[in-house]
Amino acid sequence: MSRAEDAVLNALREAADAFVSGEDISRRLKVSRTAVWKGVEVLRELGYEIDGEPKRGYRLLSVPDKLFADEISRGLDVKTIGSRILSYEAVDSTNDVAMDLGERGMPEGTCVLAEYQKKGRGRMGRAWVSPKGKNLILSVLLRPALSASELPRITLLAGVTAVRAVRAVTGIRLGIKWPNDLYYQDRKVCGILTEMKAETDKVRYAVMGIGLNVNAAVSELPPQSVSLKKIARKAVSRVELAREFLRQLDGDYARFKKEGFRGVMAEWEEHSITTGKPVTVQHRGKSLRGQAVGIDEDGALWVRRDNGIQERVTAGNVSHDRRN
Ligand code: BTN
Q: Consecutive 10-residue runs of the chain (324 residues): their mean pLDDT?
């Protein structure tokens, strides 16, 4: 969206439900009436519904649920996370775009969104499948003062933030499956993938990428997945969700930097659906069975084997078992 269109949109927003004449807008913005008309046309093409009446002028009827950077950042009161937002129609992976921005020195908190990923990535080398224009695909560039082994703390933090943001916007309570998959009953709603560039074990920059199934139909998603729309039985605003997530993460990340991981740990445990469950952990061809005990300060999962010995799990795929 160009500056002119942005200015026309602002004028329409200010008028709220009322009509504002083309002449008024042109006088206020110091542009010709043709420029105003063209701006309105571009906005309509972008999906803004704008009523136009010859004698009364223009009126904004609805905004599209597109992940436009302007829509997400409008009035967003954040210090770091989401202070810069870039949005794309299609990219290979928003994590790649954000990693590249990290390399190029962009500031912490820069956020990348896309309507579609051609090569969306999940954990453990899996693909992340998300239909065009329906879900939330978002990555945030971070520059935490952490060692590489401490980075999972960020992933756990983001999981907790996402649970809270989804609850605030939709009222839906999601549970966290270690380390940071969000579930509704036994179906996955959201996944988080944190990647980093480290030097001599210090994180230089990291990217936290989140994929949230918002408005996709279940048939468009991988098996055992569900969307917020399906759960809520109505469409959910992706813009509102993105704004709430960024606002909450801004506060959570600032607190995490000041107070450390303890607060996050407690909240993670509150939402955990893994703690206390019989689990099987698969990692590098090995399989570990036992009961999930909980997480430690690094976000690692402790599992008590049947023989009573506890093992610390830092990576792998956890499945919740039905046995006791
Ligand atoms: C998982 O559950 O395996 C993690 C999925 C992470 C998906 C997100 S979508 C935004 C970002 N870009 C990617 O390519 N992956 C993450």
A: 83 90 90 91 94 93 91 94 97 98 98 98 94 98 95 94 98 96 97 95 97 98 97 97 98 95 92 96 90 93 94 92 74
Residue 98 beta carbon below 6 angstroms from any ligand 1 atom: no
Q: What is the pLDDT of residue 17?
A: 86
Using most ligand atoms within 8 A of CB, pick from 91, 128, 180 the residue to mutate for ligand 1.
Answer: 128
Q: How far apart are CA 169 and CA 176, in angstroms?
A: 18
Residue 213 CA, ligand 1 centroid: distance in Å: 11
| Cβ(224)–Cβ(186) below 8 Å | yes
**Coil/strand/helix, residue 165:** helix
236: left (phi over 0), alpha (psi -120 to 50) or beta: beta
pTM for the model stands at: 0.92
226 close to 189: Cβ distance less than 8 angstroms = yes
Q: d(Cα 50, Cα 115) in Å, to the nearest integer? A: 23
CA–centroid distance, residue 209 to ligand 1 (Å)? 5
Ligand 1 centre from 68 Cα, in Å?
A: 20
What pLDDT does residue 324 have? Answer: 52
Does the Cβ of 117 fall within 6 Å of ligand 1? yes
Residue 129 vs residues 59, 122, 135, 227, 242: alpha-carbon distances, Å: 38, 9, 10, 13, 19
| Dist CA 10 CA 74 (whole Å) | 10
* Residue 3: per-residue pLDDT: 75
Is the CB of residue 139 below 6 angstroms from any atom belonging to ligand 1?
Answer: yes
User: Could you tell me the distance, in angstroms and rounded to a whole number, from the CA of residue 122 to the centre of ligand 1?
Assistant: 5
